[in-house]
Amino acid sequence: MSIYKALANQFIQEIETGKLIEGNRMPSLRQLSKQQAVSMSTAVSCYQELESQGWIHSRPQAGYFVAPRQSKHKTPEWARFISKVSTVNQNFAIHSSLNGPLGVSSTNIDEAALNELERSFRRASKRLGQRLNQYPDTQGEPSLRNALSVHFSKLGLHINSDELVITSGCMPSIKAALEACTQEGDAIAISSPCFSGILDLLGRMGRKIVEIPSLDDGIDLAQFEDHLKQGTIKAGVFCTSHMNPQGITMSAQQKQKLAELANRYQIPVIEDDVYLELSYSEHTPLPAKYYDQGGYILWCGSVSKSLSPSYRLGWCLPGRYTQTYRAQHTASCFGVSLPIQLAIADFIESGHYAKQLKRRRNKLLKLRQAYLSYLSSHLPEKVKITNPQGGMVLWLQVPDLNVARFKSLIEQRHIDIRLGHLFSTLSLYDDCLRVNIGFDLTEAVKAELDKLVTAITQSIC
């Protein structure tokens, strides 16, 4: 074997084993030549070989980078339909009693973050003093609001900390937002498919819905605007980055258009951005809120996915709805745990939150590659799988699926996944399912995946 091919195979092995991951910069040609003690022509031939096979790609004036992994499986096709008002008349359960690794969208905190969090909690405890005997401020601890303001300003989103409201998670933020700008019986626009928790919340609050079809770069904003023109909807609730369950991130153009529509028609849009900071690239996408000129976007977030769901800590930037939002929030929440607020503020201010996020993003990218590789090698080729650029879930579409048989096998074998029908009031996603990819691909997780693969294979007509 020639030297350049042997060198190329060495890089291929490093990419396949996860030592090199998507987006990693490759050594420059000069560096490669020196490191491997080969000629420049050999280095050039090595990169040409890798590029021809799709393992790396070049960027003008930047160099060579590891390319996204290609899969033999196509990506799911998004349903096309005409949006109309419907009623949420079923219970969209969020949790399962099985509590398996493929079910809830979640991942583990790493050891370094746990150690730093312990130090943050100790420092927060010392700062509490006599405030331990007081109720927390219902708007939220100023130090946490300031820490969040500084943190997001580094990402390009400048926030006035005085306008932030701290909540007990993203869902309570969304609930208070709905109460602030809509009433029972109002129709709310959502993406289709949509996170089951949002559907369940809207149903319990007595809101009707209008499902807007998904597109590769977001949602069908033309249909959304049609409903705005007709006055059929009173608000929108959209996850805009790394949507759950389909993994789509709205393009910058889509986010800008969404904000422009909200302002033009003076309709509130509640932006669920709980996955914003879980992009696999080095660059966090800007939210639609960034483009909001008139305050019609109520921006909601949380540390539930970026750090831990156990802290029950979120926030909302209510824009022009601040007064009514605070009133609704205060009526249902008497403040979030002060020790937790102070500890998370310390964790952010110390820089360890940002460091933890970088590690988590790298980990999730490796896990996405590992899960895609495992599923691609075990599932029938006709199964379609998303290739998300962030978040922690995959969306699978299984053509010719015998849905009744599949549901029966899932129940019999106690496989904890989320079936497609949980993400819509329409019968459009019965052949789909969501899989969490947040946990290491241990033998126990592989065993769950094997059970799932077998159930899918045995249910294809």
In total, the number of strands is: 15
The number of distinct helices, counting runs of at least 4 residues, comes to 14
**Largest beta-sheet details:** 9 strands, mixed
Mean pLDDT: 92
Low-confidence stretches: none
* Helix-strand pattern: HHHEEEHHEHEHEEHEHEEEHHHEEHEEH
* Shape, principal axes of CA atoms: globular
Distance between the termini: 45 Å
Overall structural class, as computed from helix and strand content, comes to alpha/beta
Helix content: 40-55%
Strand content: 5-15%
User: What is the alpha-carbon Rg in Å?
Assistant: 23 Å
Observed structural traits:
single chain, 461 residues, alpha/beta, nine-stranded mixed β-sheet, four-stranded antiparallel β-sheet, 14% strand, globular
Description:
With 461 residues, the chain is of the alpha/beta class. Helices cover 41% and strands 14% of the residues. The chain has 14 helices and 15 strands. It has helices spanning 3-16, 29-36, 40-52, 111-128, 142-153, 170-181, 196-204, 221-230, 252-265, 322-332, 338-349, 352-378, 403-412, 443-459, and strands at 56-59, 63-66, 85-87, 165-167, 187-192, 208-215, 218-219, 235-239, 269-272, 297-302, 314-317, 384-385, 393-397, 418-419, 432-436. Strands 3, 4, 5, 6, 7, 8, 9, 10 and 11 form a 9-stranded mixed beta sheet that branches. Helix 2 packs across helix 3 (40-52). The radius of gyration is 23 Å and the shape is globular. The mean pLDDT is 92.
